[in-house]
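Students often ask what a 'structure token' actually looks like in practice. Rather than answer in the abstract, let us consider Hemerythrin, a protein of 157 residues. Its sequence is given first.
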Amino acid sequence: MDAIVLLREDHKTVEKLFKQFEKAGEDAYDEKRKLVDQMIEELTAHAYIEEEVFYPAARAAAPETVDHVLESVEEHHVVVWMLSELKDMDPRDERFDAKVTVLMENVRHHVEEEENEWFPEVRKAMGRNQLQELCEEMVKAKGRAPSEPLAVSSARQ
Ligand SMILES: [Fe+2]
Ligand SMILES: [Fe+2]
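Now compare that with the structural description of the same chain:
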């Protein structure tokens, strides 16, 4: 297991939740609430470990990718605020599905950029050992990740 493999696994977990949401019936309010609560938990922890561990390490190892780092943090900022709004929104609210749809669009775009444009450059810049060490650090960070989306540092940036 290395840091990038771990992050890609998280992305897959979230994509599965998105697919389930898209398949859920219009009136499946309890199911949609449960899925969105899981998205909040997964995405908050994922943004946290990226911002606390991976992004700073990637910026140090591949300083030429700083634009990716900065853009990614801005994208996290939007996502964590949307998560925080969804936390308190009734799934019967007419805006609920629309907000989840835009959240999914944002996250999918973000994941695509991370995986296809940025991570390959980071992998090249970091050695195998560093990626493995970073993975251990991220697993530990996940254990102390907040459940509140706005506790992630990009929320305040
Ligand atoms: Fe990210
Ligand atoms: Fe990510």
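One point worth highlighting: Residues 3-156 form one domain. Ask yourself how you might have guessed this from the sequence alone, and why that guess would often be unreliable.
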